[in-house]
Design goal:
Elements (H helix, E strand, L loop, with lengths): L17 H23 L3 H22 L6 H12 L11 H15 L7 H11 L4 E2 L2 E2 L14 E4 L6 E5 L6 H14 L6 H15 L6 H17 L8 H7 L1 H12 L6 H34 L7 H13 L10 H8 L3 H13 L3 E5 L6 E4 L7
Antiparallel strand pairs: 1-2, 3-4, 5-6
Helix pairs in contact: 1-11, 2-3, 2-4, 2-9, 3-4, 4-5, 4-8, 6-7, 7-8, 7-11, 9-11, 10-11, 13-14
Length: 377
């Protein structure tokens, strides 16, 4: 049987080699500071929209890591309702999605509250409001009891299973979770906040205290630890989105470290690199938000129909290379559900007002893009 980290004596006395973390930690701190400065410059409406975008992404991606695919419009409906944004035209929400959004929001908005068993069990119950995970009935709002055998992380076909990890037995959970809460509530001033966030994630997912949902709760706890570090009750980056992009490496980094001693250096290097990349993506997203805001300031005096604004916002959100083939009359009709004649008139109006510019003029291939004044580049 493989040897796992939790079988070591004093396994939670984690260590790391600071010289191995110095460069990536410094780079990540710089990007974090840059992001916080950008956030401070956001107007309140821009801030709320950016927060909604990130929370929607985080909800979608943290579920996707576990193989669950959520409907984007349903998630956005739940997020908008929670943040007080318009949800007109969006579908009704679903209880399990509502629960996940609630957990992610509370993780950041209540970062200054003590972490307890009661809170974590409430989070777990919120993730599984029907007490089912798929077709399987599970214990919700309480630790696992291993009634069907010790918790194992397994992949592969039946009869050819690969055991990636075996969690501590249920009989140890009360004690190891008490240790976790004590560590969490006492370590905030003792360990660098970013390193602590990486430890918090690894520590919890190694204990694996629940029958299901451990990954989602671990990532929520990571967000909570990061909020404690930067002091912001809103998230402007999606760590889960980056984990999805590096999912194979994520599980490999966990598995290797869970089979080692208490030196977490390699895991922390991976975690910091992942967070670093998440910050880069968020910085780019906020830059797009600023550009969009400046665009509308430039054209604020121009009388536009709601359909025109909708299409322009889609072009702006897609970015310079994101709207393949540019805007065509057919795409305008598809987005606005208006007639082809009306679409043609409204596009011509946008060209005359200096908002769109024609890019191709070969009959049916006529397309348009946002006009960028070279003097404003």
């Amino acid at each position: 049987m493989p040897h796992y980290i939790w079988q070591n004596t004093d396994w939670t006395k984690f260590s790391w080699r600071e010289e191995k973390l110095l460069n990536i930690l410094s780079s990540t701190r710089f990007k974090q500071g840059d992001l916080i400065a950008k956030i401070a410059a956001l107007h309140s409406d821009e801030s709320l929209e950016s927060q909604a975008d990130i929370l929607t992404s985080e909800t979608m991606k943290t579920a996707l890591i576990e193989g669950e695919v959520y409907d984007l419009a349903t998630v956005r409906s739940s997020v908008n309702r929670k943040l007080g944004l318009s949800f007109a035209g969006l579908p009704e929400t679903k209880r399990h999605i509502e629960g996940l959004v609630d957990v992610l929001l509370e993780a950041t908005t209540s970062f200054d509250q003590k972490l307890t068993k009661k809170k974590l069990c409430a989070w777990h119950a919120a993730l599984f409001p029907t007490s089912y995970s798929g077709l399987m009935k599970i214990r919700t709002g309480q630790y696992r009891n291993d009634s069907e055998g010790q918790m194992k992380i397994i992949s592969g076909l039946i009869g050819r299973e690969i055991i990636h990890f075996q969690a501590p037995p249920a009989a140890q959970l009360e004690n190891v979770m008490k240790d976790y809460f004590q560590w969490w509530n006492s370590s905030q001033t003792q360990v660098d906040g970013l390193i602590r966030s990486g430890i918090a994630h690894f520590y919890f997912v190694t204990i694996h205290p629940f029958e299901d949902g451990n990954g989602r709760i671990a990532r929520a706890l990571t967000d909570m630890a990061l909020a404690q570090d930067d002091g912001l009750k809103k998230r402007y980056y999606s760590l889960s989105e980056q984990i999805v992009a590096d999912k194979k490496q994520y599980y490999e980094a966990l598995e290797v470290t869970q089979r080692g001693d208490s030196d977490l250096t390699d895991w922390l290097v991976w975690f910091l690199q992942c967070f670093n990349q998440a910050l880069s993506k968020s910085n780019a997203l906020l830059q797009k938000t600023f550009a969009k805001s400046e665009f509308w300031k430039t054209h604020q005096g121009k009388n536009l129909h709601d359909r025109q604004r909708k299409v322009i916002n889609k072009l702006l959100d897609a970015g310079e290379d994101g709207f393949q083939g540019g805007l065509t009359t057919r795409k305008y009709v598809s987005m606005t559900k208006t007639s082809r004649a009306t679409a043609g008139r409204e596009i011509s109006d946008l060209v005359q007002k200096g908002i769109l510019v024609q890019t191709k003029s070969a009959g049916r291939n006529v397309s348009y893009q946002i006009y960028v004044n070279p003097q404003c580049d």
